[in-house]
Design brief:
The chain is α+β, with helices and mostly antiparallel strands. Among the domains are: 82-168, no CATH class; 222-228 and 257-350 and 392-473, no CATH class. It is built from 9 helices and 15 strands. The protein has a 7-stranded mixed sheet with strand order 7-15-12-8-11-10-9, sandwiched between helices. A 4-stranded mixed sheet has the order 3-13-14-6. A two-stranded antiparallel sheet has the order 1-2. Helix 1 (12-37) packs antiparallel against helix 2 and helix 2 (46-74) crosses helix 9. The longest helix has 29 residues, at 46-74. The chain starts with 11 loop residues before the first helix and ends with a strand.
Length: 476
């Protein structure tokens, strides 16, 4: 899982709000567990509680994201200082100094505003207000100090890079797996070794060679695209004023898009067969319709169906343990040659299954019981048998077979996915790109956000056992 973010690092006001949300979530969880313990759920509105639970969990992420955005504006790293989580290679352009009302603003925002207005002016010069002399002077200074042509292209890469960093931090599903920067597309990735055999050594004698089995997976990226419309009447102050909230919205929505693709990607574009549109031809621009790769749910519902049990009943510890047992060496502790640490596993489930089913299990420990880990950004809400449990809206209620049927169908059963994180990879051929164009029919400027993402699983998917699941979970 990604690095933890302790509550103590939050600003005072944000820390207070975060703790309030923590207490509210804990109170809601206690209410549900109390009803579960006496076997009486008649006094709770399950759907309303589930919706409120996910709202609060999303608000926790929003507080953490907003705190990061606030700190970004309060103290931008100096020019060329490294920023971002481990493995991320972004560089800040620094903050504005000596330019009046713009002092302290991130240079990325200044170049973003300049680029947006410059692009808009080329398309509709009569609609965009002129720069103020102070802003024009600042832009010229920025372009001189940050490199030739920085503000004349699409939105500067500095802002896109910091946004991408925060999208990764806000993610709950995609960020649980190792990220690969794809040098070309498609990209063959050697995603893991087999068992390496250790032997006793003897002086002057070569040991028996160990030939660990390798397994490659092909990462083929799929583009994810979103659109934001801007009014024709642009000026630098109005653009700069809304950037903090726009930055927060783009972070949260971008993280949700990456998570949903990782969970639900499916290359089947036909009248039947797509796990997200089982009995209906999906729209050609459906986010989950991939260009060749399949996600976590597809692995257990289609690729190796033996790895997921259609239980058609309520969830129990025994049923989850049976699913874990299907993973063999990838899911249970074995000999020294095939053991895996429990922290290599992660359990994803839809919110209702977590709240109504898992909270009643003997092997569950909720996050409010084990201290500082309650502050993680990743969305972990509990541990089941030591495995992090991440409730996520990227898993929807489904039909009995775990797939999503047509509109109007009965989608009321839950799903659990358990994955060995070392056997999946998330590839990015292109991180966040922000572009601008003019839409004359609506008298707006169109800003398009996009990234190219790929998903890969280790080994032959039809026989792989590194992922398992339970579907057809009922709540009766």
């Amino acid at each position: 899982m990604p690095d933890l973010t302790p509550v103590e690092s939050l600003a005072a006001a944000n820390r207070q709000e975060f703790e309030r949300l923590n207490q509210e979530v804990a109170s809601l969880v206690a209410t549900v567990k109390e009803h579960m313990s006496v076997g009486d759920r008649s006094g709770i509105d399950e759907d309303a509680l589930t919706n409120r639970f996910m709202q609060m969990m999303n608000e926790r992420v929003s507080v953490l994201v907003a705190d990061g955005v606030q700190k970004f504006y309060e103290k931008v790293p100096r020019k060329h200082q490294m920023v971002g989580r481990r493995g991320f290679m972004a560089r800040s352009l620094g903050e504005v100094q000596g330019f009046g009302r713009f002092d302290g603003l991130p240079m990325e925002d200044i170049l973003f505003t300049h680029s947006l207005m410059q692009s808009a002016r080329r398309r509709a010069p009569e609609r965009v207000k002129a720069y103020t002399p102070e802003f024009e002077q600042l832009v010229q200074h920025a372009l001189t100090s940050t490199g030739s042509g920085t503000g004349d292209e699409f939105v500067p890469t500095g802002m896109a890079a910091t946004l991408w960093r925060d999208i990764n931090l806000a993610s709950r599903v995609a960020s649980a797996f190792q990220e690969i920067a794809m040098p070309y597309d498609p990209f063959d990735s050697p995603v893991g070794w087999g068992d390496i055999t250790w032997r006793k050594g003897t002086q002057n004698s070569a040991t028996t060679v160990s030939n660990p089995a390798t397994a490659k997976s092909t990462l083929t990226s799929t583009e994810q695209v979103a659109e934001i419309n801007w009014s024709y009447n642009l000026d630098e102050d109005s653009v700069i004023a809304i950037l903090p909230t726009l930055r927060e919205d783009m972070i949260i929505s971008g993280a949700a898009a990456a998570d949903a693709f990782m969970m639900n990607a499916d290359a089947t574009n036909a009248a039947t067969g797509n796990i997200n549109s089982d009995d209906e031809d999906p729209a050609d621009d459906s986010y989950f319709l991939s260009d060749g790769q399949d996600g976590l749910r597809h692995q257990v519902l289609v690729d190796n169906t033996a790895q997921s049990a259609d239980i058609s009943t309520t969830l129990t510890d025994a049923l989850l343990l049976a699913a874990l047992g299907k993973m063999g060496k990838y899911g249970i502790l074995g000999s020294h040659t095939n053991s895996v640490a429990i922290n290599k596993l992660v359990l994803f489930t839809n919110p209702k299954t977590y709240l109504i089913s898992m909270l009643g299990l003997a092997n569950i420990r909720t996050w409010d019981k084990y201290g500082p880990l309650a502050s993680i950004v990743s969305g972990e809400a509990a541990k089941w048998s030591g495995i992090p449990v991440v409730p996520t809206s990227s898993i929807a209620l489904a039909e009995d077979d775990g797939k999503i049927g047509p509109a109007g169908g009965t989608m009321d059963e839950g799903t659990v996915i358990i994955a060995n994180r070392h056997n999946w990879r998330v590839g990015y051929r292109r991180q966040l790109l922000i572009e601008l164009d003019r839409l004359i029919q609506q008298r707006t400027f169109v800003m398009v956000l996009s990234f190219r993402m790929a998903v890969a699983a280790r080994g032959t998917r039809s026989t792989a056992t590194h992922t398992a699941g339970v579907h057809g979970i009922t709540y009766a």
